[in-house]
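ugh ok fine here u go
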Amino acid sequence: MFLIRRVFKVKKGGVVQLCEILKQIGEKYESLGQRQPSRIYHSGYTTPGPLNTVYMEWIDTEIKSIFRKDNPSPEGIDELYAALHALEEETWIEFHELYSKE
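structure:
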């Protein structure tokens, strides 16, 4: 099992808007069965951590590209990604293998 985390450095004032966009993106992938439910959170205003930073994470059994041929894009996803890109300054992805004693 893997924890997959996307991290977004956001333009000042865009944190809440980016969180809403990520929520919609996650729901679209979930509705097609392409992703498990995701958590979206941010840091830097009322909590410690880097300013203007938003995180989206979910758990999956394997690491898979969203661009694979057997994975159709959800309807309306391009518009959401365009809105996301307008707010982000930098983004990266992290992969963490979850510990299991089994």
